[in-house]
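Usage example:
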Amino acid sequence: MLLAILIVPFAAAVACGLAPSPRRVAPAVTVVSGIASLGLVMALVPGTVRAGGQAEFGYLKADAISLVFLLATAFLYAALAVYSVGYLRHGHGDRYLRRFHAGFNLFAWSMLAAPLMSSLALLWIAVEVTTIVSALLVALEAGPAKGSEGGEAGPAEGGAAEGGAAEGGAAEGGASAAEAAWKYVLIASAGLGLALLGTIFAYYAGSRVLSGHFDLSVAPLIAAGPRLPHAPVMLAFVLATLGYGTKVGLFPVHTWLPDAHSEAPAPVSALLSGALLATSFYAILRFYQITATSVGSAFPRDVLLAFGVASLLLAALYVFGQRDVKRLLAYSSIEHMGICAIAVGFGAPIALAGMLLHVLAHAAAKGNAFMGAGVLTVKYGTKRIGGIRGGLRALPWSGPLFGFAVFALSAMPPSGIFRSEFQIVAGGLASGSYAVAAALVAGVTLAFFALSTEATGMLLARPARSLSAAAREPADPGEPSAWMVVPVVAGTVALVVLGLHPPGELTDLIARAVTELGGTR
Amino acid sequence: MGVGGAPGVYGDAADVAAALMLLLEFGLLRQALIRDQVRLYAAQSALISVLAIVIAADRNLPELYALAGLSAALKVVAVPWVVRRLLLRPRAPGWRAGEEAPGVAGSYTLNVASAVLASIALAAFGFFSFGSFHVSASTAPVTALALAGAMVFVAFGLMIVRRDVASQAIGFFSLENAISLAALVLAAGMPLILETAFLFDLLVAVVVFGMLIRAHHAKAESMSTADLTRLRG
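Running the assembly step on the lines above writes:
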């Protein structure tokens, strides 16, 4: 079962890379693989909740914590596979489609692999693979320069003329994408270098007490926790938090994030934001587990609180004044990852449960928001917020769904994020961190103001007469593609279910994960 | 040498190798031609392999011989070859065939003297902070570890003060070398399979870096990152 989760997306990536006619084969393969992966992950849930609590196979291992993150990734993978069919329908050459689908499946594969790894070293490798694959996906819009030239210039320009995602012509979009990809790969790789250093210190700490063939597995490290030497463990935790935090988007090492999110194709942005950030956060959680059993939870909690509060407040301020809809959502991702870090910092069981629920709800909501933003950019031919007006009338389905996603991100009640943030704040009050809880509420409210102002502007405002022709309301109201509506509806349903009444098995799963995180003390 | 660490051949060899690697790191910092940077990087990587062999002999860890060989094959031969191939003989538009790639001499944000001084300060900071962590044991020479720490800081400094994509990439690769050094000193017994995976990971990263550098060069028609200012805020 665990092996199947890894084989399916990888096989899909290979199939897409080799398919003779990517236009017909690749989307179908991707959709099948996405839905199959989601099914496989969901099939793991009952066993994990009921029996010994984990599934193991060689170097692979899934416990309740892994499963929460796997669910988030697999859900987005399935939804975005369907969405991509519509998103890529127009104006892309065979070469682009082949690369997109192969890269997309490979990216999903690496993110599904990371939470399944039983050892810190393999986890690091999986996260590094996610960086490499996703950097290539971000660079995809850079077009012909990558690899051999020619062949793609035509379709790329055609995409812009037809209302594709490129803003001011394909060339300019390409330069921005190349810039974003470069910054992303350099900053994230350097950050992961620090995480590797942290991993090595963890090995050093483990090798002091565990003899024989110690391979950095998480479980023996946790079991040996109290006997581990303190200094290297603390050092490992700080380095890992800073290193993986670079990929989570924690302030002050978040700088690649808005660039990469805004320049990637919309399905990749959604996967970056909803799944990749969470996967990196998962890596920090593993180090948290080890550190908490070794030196007590106070030290790692303080570290995460500091990073979390800084990220939340800075991101909440940056959300104001964004002129690009995808950058707006990217800063909102930093804010939400800050919230997750704060939740672990609180340490109360209810806050930890809220954090895990938040990971799931954020994946659904942010996926929806980016999918909606993708529809808007396709429809209006621009990512500029000022250029998108009257979306509610132009897009009878995607308009309201995008609105719902943004309000969900701002933690409005019927959504899962309301429930999770409520639990996190409650946990903060329970653990006596009143000031941080107040800062959390203030930051979330600030972000709510900014997000809802911009979103209502895009959806409700009338197009101004003075704007350029491209910014006026498109002549024909209507959805670009039904493929781009269905997954958003699914995401919305998931959000409401998470908000109103999470299924019993999910609650059990989260409760078990909280126990594994040491939240019962 | 060998202060507080393991006495004998191993400790001294580790210290000497680490010191030489730090020197080469400074060489990278002020080198003006990509070709020379690649050579320095290869030399630095060769030192890692030598150190691995010394440790293997001293502590009777036969799998480290394999690691040394693999590391040398990848970092001394393969990575420089890939970098040269992607950067120095490019067929990207803007470069004429057979022409030497543009130098990266003028890419400092600070002038050379200030950059070197700042890096010395960084190195000192890294040296003393890593030296003060008390992670020493009978197996880990403290000086070599502290030097690895200094290298990490200088590698970051290199990526910061040089404003061209080639130096930044080489800076990242040498950061990886610094971490390999720390790994050898701290975690020599790490299973070979993991080390191998790390190395192949590096190779893939190198290819991706190369592709992105070429994409950048084709768009910007220079190696400079000074004009990467489109995305901000």
